[in-house]
Hints:
Shape: globular
Strand order of the largest sheet: 7-8-10-9-5-6-4-3-2-12
Low-confidence stretches: none
Mean pLDDT: 89
Largest sheet: 10 strands, antiparallel
Number of helices: 11
Structural class: alpha+beta
CATH topology of the largest domain: HIT family, subunit A
Distance between the termini: 45 Å
Strand content: 15-25%
Oligomer: single chain
CATH architecture of the largest domain: 2-Layer Sandwich
Amino acid sequence: xxxxxxxxTTPFRPxxxxxxxxxKPNEFFNSTENLADLVNxxxxxxxxxxxxxxxxxxxxxxxxxxxxxxxTSKVILDPLGRPVRRTQVPEHVRQVWNRMNxxxxxxxxxxxxxxxxxxxxxxxxxxxxxxxxxxxxxPSIRMLHNHFMVFPMVELKKAPLADPANxxxxxxxxxxxxxxxMRDVYREFFTRALELRLLKPAxxxxxxxxxxxxxxxLPSWEIQGGVAALRxxxxxxxxxxxxxxxxxxxxxxxxxxxxxNAPMPxxxxxxxxxxxxxxxxxxxxxxxxxxxxxxxxxxxxAHAIRWQPAFKQLxxxxxxxxxxxxxxxxxxxxxxxxxxxxxxxxxxDAEAYERREPALVEKLLEVRRxxxxxxxxxxxxxxxxxxx
Length: 388
């Protein structure tokens, strides 16, 4: 079978919401008011840490698809003041979140133990306003949430090949600015700055899925110990270290793009390595100059840049059954699935969705039961399920 990105069609039940006059759909769907729909129609569990587990109404997969959002909408009214990445989440909240992540990932692996049968992934993407606010589809909700998804491999194999030039697939190695011009220094920075014990650098061939050929050229790490490592605090600390390293690299690079010979950004996590590996590297600084010069002469290009860090970080299972961590810069419109070469075409089709709904809800309620049992929240009642 020819490897390449796949485009699958996922039916969904249209959300019965009236958009107030004068608002764009993305403005309303990402509003505080719309969060009531997450709770009342799709909410599964909530806890005192303001973490909300919910069914994805506009989902990626009808096999298994859920999210946890750090719902700070009622405690932080200023959207620009809300945490949008793991490093900004309070320690006690992050501890609860990590335990929830581990239980849900373990359940997905338990339900689909053979990597030949299912693609399993979990991860998050930054949702801050790092894109020009006038662009369509820009998240205004500005709250961190993560995703948990399972795709049957039989459906992916039947799916047609996606257009590799699809802009939502250009985050990987062959199109990425980091990978095209700074691959060596990017990886050297991660290697020298991060002190990892449970995460071991993975070769491109081990990280890549045979069916899709993705991810492409991204730094990846194998989780030594597999799913058992997710029960260790050490793993989640190392997972955060990868994000901190990415943020340092991104901030340092775009500070040089913005201002020639800019000083080291304030508050970097690895200042010694920023100085030694990045700010004294000719490839790094030549690339910053290339981007800066392009911005000077191309208004469209300059407008399209995300000047602040935007990322996708995920855990997934490779073809050999190993759990892999990877991270990539995020671009507008990307779904986290596209990092693995899966393009999701959502189609409104209530009848088709409802045929899959009972089995999906059964799995979601079982996950909820395990989380409640672990004292990680209380169930929410909706028209589709009781509080439990």
